[in-house]
Amino acid sequence: MKISILVLLGSLFLGIFVPKLNAQLPETEVWMLTLDNYDNIKKVEYLSNFNSGAYNNQAVFADNNNILMTAELDEGNTDIVMLNPISKKWTRLTKTLENEYSPQISENNYVTTVRVEQDEKTQLLWQYPKDASNSGKQFVEEYTNVGYYQSLNNYKMAMFVLEQTNDLHIINLRNNRLEAVTKDIGRCLKLRKNGELLFIQNDAKPTIKSYNPISKRIETVHKALEGSADFALFGDSEIIIMAKGPHIYRYNPTAASYILLYDLSEYGLKNITRMDYRNGKLLLVNKP
Fold first, then answer.
1. What is the SS3 assignment for the chain?
2. pTM for the full predicted model
3. What is the mean pLDDT of residues 221-250?
């Protein structure tokens, strides 16, 4: 029987790359920028001291004070960690025989993850209660091939489904009704304040598109930055930013092109692969 451990602090609260258990996980690290405004970086912090030189990935804000991330704390196995960047205290949320990835806080206040079963093929959407009242359960039973996901509201979930073309599906959690939206999408799923889902459509020229879960309409937002698979919604106006190498770019609609926002090479960052923004702070995953 699998044993799962979930421990949360009292104040607490997108094909997926899944390395084989006997393969070495790549070194990745988490950084955070504190911003005065769009043009001024106030502070740059390295947040992976607790697990330096190992796999630390898929960092997202859990709330205003805490960060969730995937970390390889035991060799060849990934679990979910919560980190408070102010106190520098970290808490291991899971300790399982399976690998967990892509942590989020769902609308119903559970910690959700993609859990890769021991057959290294089955990928389930799993959830853990914040109060550690039980060891968790499979969240969506209709899919065993979930790569990434994004909660849309308290009863709808968008999922990057691992199929031949990596498809976008929506599930209604009230009635388990499934909806196939479109094919050949990227791993990054982001939710706008207006309830629209943003994703990258991998056409000949990858394009950022929006999906309205009410009208079911898909519309083109603008082109994606060439060579970048991830984006974030930046600031109160939700500007789309993308990264390439040590550089972060924002889209300029007037020129219909991306312009440089930050050059982080002076801080030692080399390859920014993921980002998440919240209230003047920008989380970065860097591959050194």
1. CCCCCCCCCCCCCCCCCCCCCCCCCCCCEEEEEEEEECCEEEEEEECCHHHCCCCEEEEEECCCCCEEEEEEEECCEEEEEEECCCCCCEEECCCCCCEEEEEEECCCCCEEEEEECCCCCCEEEEEECCCCCCCCEEEECCCCEEEEEEECCCCEEEEEECCCCCEEEEEECCCCEEEEEECCEEEEEEECCCCCEEEEECCCCCEEEEECCCCCCEEEEEECCCCCCCEEEECCCCEEEEEECCEEEEEECCCCEEEEEEECHHHCCCCEEEEEEECCEEEEEECC
2. 0.90
3. 96
